[in-house]
Automatic annotation (TrEMBL):
InterPro entries from the UniProt entry: Amidohydro-rel (IPR006680), Hydantoinase/dihydroPyrase (IPR011778), Metal-dep_hydrolase_composite (IPR011059), Metal_Hydrolase (IPR032466), Metallo-dep_Hydrolases_sf (IPR050378)
Native species: Bradyrhizobium retamae
Superkingdom per UniProt: Bacteria
Name used for this protein in its record: Dihydropyrimidinase
Modified residues (N6-carboxylysine): K152
Post-translational note: Carbamylation allows a single lysine to coordinate two divalent metal cations.
Cofactor requirement: Zn(2+)
The enzyme's E.C. designation: 3.5.2.2
Amino acid sequence: AQFDLAIRGGTIVTASDEFRADIGIRDGRIVSIADRIEGAAREIDATDLLALPGGIDSHVHISQPSGPDVVMADDFASATRAAAAGGNTTILPFALQIKGSSLRACVEAYKKLADGECYIDTSFHLIISDPTAVVLGQELPALVKDGYTSFKVFMTYDDLVLSDKQLLEVFEVARREQALVMVHCEGYDAIRHLTEKLEREGHIAPYFHGTSRPQIVEREATHRAISHAEIVGVPIMIVHVSGREAMEQVRWAQQRGLPVHAETCPQYITLTADDMKGLNMDMSGAKYVCSPPPRDKASQDAIWDGIIGGVFHTFSSDHCPFRYDDPKGKLTPNSRTSFCWVLNGIPGVETRLPIFFSEGVSKGRISLQKFVELTSTNHARIYGLYPRKGSIGVDFDADIVLWDPKLKKTIRQSDLHHGSDYTPWEGFEVTGWPVMTIARGQVVADNGKIVGTKGAGEVISRGRSSLI
Ligand code: URP
Ligand code: ZN
Ligand code: ZN
Ligand code: ZN
């Protein structure tokens, strides 16, 4: 046959267009887009469905060591299965540098964990926790040349925080090597100060995680990161922006013409700090503990303003899954003595797209094009996967999600494929659902059933960011 697969009768949506056409696929790539495609070995009927570029989730954490006796709820097999069921065809997890270790050795260890395990394509960012002279002068430049063209730095967390001097040094390497830095903006010392004060007052429940890192802490760090980037003259990506205060800093920078970009996540348009109260202040609030923490309704509105107004370039999950009812999960042995021992992070790789589609497109806040831009196209452009991924067009990888815009679903943990034992969105109602996920021409997920093969997804390297 001329084609391995034809997707027929669907409406193709890209970041700029929307039109009815068939899609012809051969050897994992899109080779034809036409009114009518015949002569395919297999045909999929997409009548009444949208054909969207597969979701790219550029912010997920998988198999990251998170403390003694802690295991993340997903390995690369379960995370990529969950991602595929949720309409994604590529994920970008992090390879975390362990302090004192060679960065290269850490990267190789993650590659080994992922190799042969993935259902969809996977590509690593780096996390720089120990910017020694060797890391900055040799390892990082070599890794950028090998296709690790983005790395994350942290302004908080005991094991990860960099000083301002170190941030500036990493930014310099990014500028020289034409890589993109992602910055976690929360001020370490302010959080420690507030945490100690809360603990002294006996405010130790998971809810006070939010109180210990208020918006001002994020605003201050966001401004500091922007200033450092301006000093060095390098583009940056501010990840997981949670509310109005940090969003306004990003907008201020953008209005001054600085190359400052920003990401937000489902938790910041759907959850609030009150979710961390749990039932009668029990420990179940821990299920919502992530950093930055969810804010309030007014902040959700501000995030929407930023999405609609173009402040945000990507919408990612920040999937960072731990099990709740598990001694190696969310609640560590000390977490009843203080919120600061509750592990940070929530699962979301499988629910990101339906939540954003439903809250955004179905509720009339954003267009289909904007949805595609923020969930796929911009991720590919910003992280160097374009024009291989991120759109539907001839020569692109055949990474496609067939989407039913009318299908109503209630999110239930029992239907999900991730390794966590809960979802923060239990009972959340959505309109619009990914009914089939096709990755490099192979059906991976079909109506919630995983039909792909482990190992079909590859660990891929990336080119330079379009922001450079
Ligand atoms: O709470 C979160 N978001 N944990 C994941 C790590 C990070 O900072 O992105
Ligand atoms: Zn972060
Ligand atoms: Zn994260
Ligand atoms: Zn403490």
